[in-house]
Design brief:
Helix content: 40-55%
Structural class: alpha+beta
Order of helices and strands: HEEHEEH
Radius of gyration: 13 Å
Strand order of the largest sheet: 1-2-4-3
Strand content: 15-25%
Shape: globular
Distance between the termini: 28 Å
Number of helices: 3
Largest sheet: 4 strands, antiparallel
Length: 91
């Protein structure tokens, strides 16, 4: 079982993840791109990161917008896997 982050750990992690917010047991971020092609290219890059980390986001895409939600379903909440993937997505 992957340990869930404490409230203090989540708050601390969010200070180093600008643009990310907490929505219940999810980390969420909304990205906006020039057009669909740029949004789709971003999703392809994130897909490779997620596959490498074996941790897959919940996401949606509408034209130039990509919305990402991260949580660790096996832990029923947020874990270090979520914060690590969020940081990787931003890098």
């Amino acid at each position: 079982m992957i340990p869930r982050l404490t409230e203090a750990e989540i708050a601390l992690a969010l200070t180093s993840l600008p643009g990310w917010n907490r929505d219940g047991e999810f980390l969420v971020r909304h990205y906006k791109f020039k057009d669909f092609t740029h949004a789709f290219a971003f999703m392809a890059r994130v897909a490779l990161l997620a596959e490498k980390a074996d941790h897959h986001p919940e996401w949606s895409n509408v034209y130039n917008r990509v919305d990402i939600r991260l949580t660790t379903h096996d832990a029923d909440g947020l874990t270090g896997r979520d914060t690590a993937l969020a940081a990787a997505i931003d890098s």
